[in-house]
Amino acid sequence: MRTFKLVIVGGGSTYTPGIVKSLLDKKEEFKLEELRLYDNNEERQRKVGILVQKVVEKFDPELKLTLTTDPEEAFTDIDFAFAQMRVGLYKMRELDEKIPLKYDVVGQETCGPGGLAYGLRTIYPMVEMIDFCEKYAKPTYWIVNYSNPAAIVAKAMYLLRPKARILNICDMPVAIMRNMANILDCDRHDIVADYFGLNHFGWFTKIRVKDEDRTEELKAYVKEHGYMPPDERSEVRHNDASWKHTFDNAKYLARMFPDYLPNTYMQYYLLGDQIVKDADKNHTRANEVMEGREKRIFDAVDTYEKTGEIDMTPFFTGVHGEFIVEVAMSLAFNLRKRHLVMVPNQGAVKNVPDDAMVEIPAYITSEGPEPVRVGQIPTFYKGMIEQQEACEKLVVEAAIEGSYKKALMAFTMNKTVPSAFVAKHILDEMIEANREFWPELK
Ligand code: NAD
Ligand code: G6P
Ligand code: MN
After folding, report:
1. Which residue in 204, 200, 40, 198 sits closest to 109, CA to CA?
2. Would 136 disulfide with which of 75, 155, 211, 423, CB 3.0-4.6 Å?
3. pLDDT tens-place string over residues 115-130
C-alpha cells in the first residue's frame, strides 16, 4: 500500500490536533508514513505538539511524528503539505479587525481592509513555503492551502508561482453545506452544490440531494431562519454566538436577493452598516477566539503537563478537518471527487476575467482540479465579483510592486469602504501596525 509523508505548515495552529485526528480517522485508506509539524514559532508548536502526540498515540501509535522549525527537515521528500499559517498570530488579527472599526468600517480578518492587511502579510511567507516545496519535496508534491486570506493568497500564488502544485480551499461552503444537510435531513456527502464566486464571496445556485433538486425548499427555509439548523446538533466549529448570528443573517440576504443562496461572508459586503452597528469595537472575534479556542488549547496543555490528564474532544474540528482530508485523498488517489475549490477562472465563469481565482465546483484528480463550466452570471453578481476581484488584484500588485498607490486603490475599491479619505486613514494606520510584516509601500 502506498504511504505518504505529510507536513502541516503552521503546526502550532489551534486546528492542528483536530486535523490530525481527521487524518488518522482515514488511516486504513490514507496511510501516513510520517507526520511532520513545521512552524516558525517553536514554543507554540511544542505545546500544540503535546496534544498532537496524544492524538497519534490514541489513533495510530506506530506513526512517526516529527516537530521541526527547519525547512529542510520539514519538506524533504514530502507528498503533501497542509498550509495553515497565520502570519502575525491573533495579535495582528485583532488589529485587522479593530483598525477599520475605528472608522466605522467592517472589521473582519478576511473581508474589507482587515483581509487586505492580512493578505499583505501572508503573500511572501507563502511564496517562501512554495519554494521550500520546490526545493525539497517530491516532484509530485501537493500543497493543500487554507491559510487565509485564501482569496488573496490564491491570486498571489497564481501570479508569482504559477507552476506550483497548490490547491487553495476554504471550509465555509462545506460548513454551510453541513448546515444545509441538517436542514434537509440528509448526509452532507449526498449534496451536490452548484456555486460560483471568489473565496469568501459567492453564491450557491442549486442544491441537489441524490439528484433531487431541493433548492426552492431550502431557499424558503433560509428566508425564515438563515442557515440556523432546526435542531442544534452539537458542532465544535462555528458554534459560538457570533457564528450563530452570522448564520442567521443569511435570511436577510436570501429575502432581498432570492435568486441564489449566499455564502455567509456576503454579509460583510451587503450588510456592512448593520455589521458595524452590531460590532463591539473593543472586543472583536479575535478576542473571542483568544479567550476561547486558543486559551482552551494552551490551558489544556498546561493542565496536562501538571496532571497528566487531558480531554481531547474539544479540539476535534468536524467538517474543517474532514474536508481537508477528503480533498487530499482525492488528489492522492485520483478520486475525481467534486468539491468547491479555488481555480483560475479561464472561462469557467464566462463573463468574469480569465485570470480571476474563482471558487467553483471542480473534480479533484491527482493532477489537480478539473473545474466545471459555470457559464454566464447575471449583472448584479458579475458587478459585485468584478469589484472585489479588482480589489484583490490591486492588493497583490501593491505587494509585488511595493506600490502605495495600488494599495490605496485596493482599499478604496473595497465595497466595505465608503470613500478614498477613509481608505487612506485606514491604510496609513495599518502600514504603521504592520511594519514588521508588510513589503515596503512607496
Ligand atoms: P494559529 O495562529 O493558531 O496558527 C497558525 C500558526 O501558523 C501559528 O502557530 C504560527 O506560528 C504559524 N505561522 C505563522 N507564520 C508562519 C510561517 N511563515 N511559517 C510557518 N508557520 C507560520 O491560527 P489558526 O486560527 O489555527 O488558523 C490557522 C490558519 O488557518 C489561518 O490562516 C486561518 O485563517 C486559516 N483557516 C482557514 C480556513 C479556511 O476555510 N480557509 C479555516 C480555518 C482556518
Ligand atoms: C470559516 C472560514 C475560515 C475562517 C474561519 C474563522 O471557517 O472559512 O476561512 O478562518 O471561519 O473562524 P474563527 O472561528 O477563527 O472566527
Ligand atoms: Mn475560509
Report:
1. 200
2. 75
3. 999 999 999 999 999 9
Nearest alpha carbon, ligand 2 atom 8: 172
Residue whose C-alpha is closest to residue 357's, from 370, 379, 341 = 341
pTM across the whole model: 0.98
Helix pair 319-333, 172-184: axis angle to 10 deg: 110
Backbone angles phi, psi at 276, to 5 degrees: -65, -40
Instruction: Give the burial class of 414: count Cβ atoms within 10 A of its Cβ; 0-12 exposed, 13-18 middle, 19 or more buried.
Output: buried
Number of neighbouring beta carbons within 10 Å of residue 140: 12
Closest among 132, 125, 201, 135 to 157, alpha carbons compared: 125
Interatomic CA distance for residues 350 and 374, integer angstroms: 7
The counts of H helices and E strands in the chain are 17, 13
* The residue to which cell 480531554 is assigned: 311
Q: For the beta carbon of residue 407, count every other beta carbon within 10 angstroms.
A: 27
How many A from CA of 172 to the centre of ligand 3? 5
**Cis geometry, peptide bond prior to residue 149 (ω within 30 degrees of 0):** yes
Q: How far apart are CA 321 and CA 304, in angstroms?
A: 24
pLDDT, one tens digit per residue, over 257-310 is 999 999 999 999 999 999 999 999 999 999 999 999 999 999 999 999 999 998
Q: Does the CB atom of residue 389 touch ligand 2 within 6 A?
A: no
CA 372 to chain CA centroid, nearest Å: 21
Catalytic residues: 171, 265
Contact 222, 249 (CB under 8 A): no
User: Exposure string (b/e) for 247-285, b if CB count within 10 Å is 16 or more?
Assistant: bebbbbbbeeeeebbbbbbbbbbbbbeebbeebeeeebb
